[in-house]
Please model this.
Amino acid sequence: MAGVRVASAAGPGSDTLASALEAQRERLLPCVHCGFCLPACPTYERLGDENDSPRGRLHLMQAVVDGRLDAASDAFHTHIDRCLGCRACEPVCPSGVEYGTLLELAREAAARARPPALPTRLLLSVMGSRTARSPFFVGGRMLRATGLASLGARILPSEGVLGTGRLGLAMLAASADGTDRIRRARPAGGAHASPLAEGTSPDTTPADPESPNVPSSPSDPPSSAFSAGRRARVGLLEGCVQKGLFERINAATARTLRFNGYDVVPVPMGDCCGALHAHGGDLDGARRLAQRNMDAFERADVDLVVTNAAGCGAAMKEYGTLFDSDADLADRAGAFARRVRDVSELLEEAGPRPGAEVPCTLAYDHPCHLQHAQGLAHAPLAVLGAVPGTEVRVIEGADECCGGAGIYGITHPDLGGRIGRDKVAAVRAAAGDAACTPNPGCMMQIGAGLRLEGARADVVHPVEILDESYRKAGYYE
Model:
């Protein structure tokens, strides 16, 4: 491996990774170094460095296991840290290497050998605490509602620390409700100019994210024109970012599921799914959050656990793997993981029921953790296909990461920015009324990129479009 210096001695992180990977050896050994993963990897495609490919990173992991490379080395940290964790390599791997699991173990070893930067540690601490999350997101919503987030995204410089702040504010502004312009979109067949190609008008202010017609809690039942046959009893993961910035999507999720026959019950003690912690190398923190969720949903006595965030769904569907070394919890976690569903899976299973026409064109992008990690590409499109008058244009390169990858866009502004700009270019080329993707993190990353380029288009979740279709049909207020 070019550029990698082999260490003569292994540090404590090396022992951690060695022992962890020894238990996961069946996941590491199948790699036959065929190279099929190379063109699927966004970092390798842009950097051309074998060490920044899945194959190269697996080689580095094996070197740490064998004691040929120190887990505290610059080489190990640099190349493991540069990985987006998008898992695009997994579907193309003929040997079925479970790269995502191995990456999280490698990051845990790297974090123990060399703790992450202070901002990353603080963010994981906040996301892991209900007490800390609440004021954090209250402040975020205030910045969004007052327009200060949009203002900062426009006027701050794009370089250095202030550039990172500018991106963060643009992401916050991008979490605002994007359905307002959809409601005012042109009639079907009418000529219009795509907002994706337009610059932002000086007086453009993002719509208030919480519509007065949205119930304060996903547990508030909507009235409906008819009662669908009962399906499963489901509990909705309100999540951390979803609850803090996308409560309207939680509400739309509950309404559309109820209208399609599901019994949606509140799970008040549900917590963050733990995905950010697992991606950040804090697997112990991820396990603590996972156990809280298992406790909460088991108390709610639900048949299924539903989420509207691709990253959360991927993480929760792998709780069994997260606890596979814990004899006391492995079976329980595996059983819980088998009950997790993305909202699009449940809606597709139900039909879903059609509503009224919503005349608009959407530039659709697949979230990595829905398409690659969960193997779900058709279900969200089936949800949108149930909305009359909505044209869906899947963008070019929809199977590649948007560059968000949790907090990657902020911690890796150069590489994440390059990947993000390519995604924004593809979204704008699709010339829709709005971008659409079923993951809050992707919504914020793509929306931020659009704003930073002066485009005024918003980003919406598929359930928001279905919800608008039902609202227009008079199925509920």
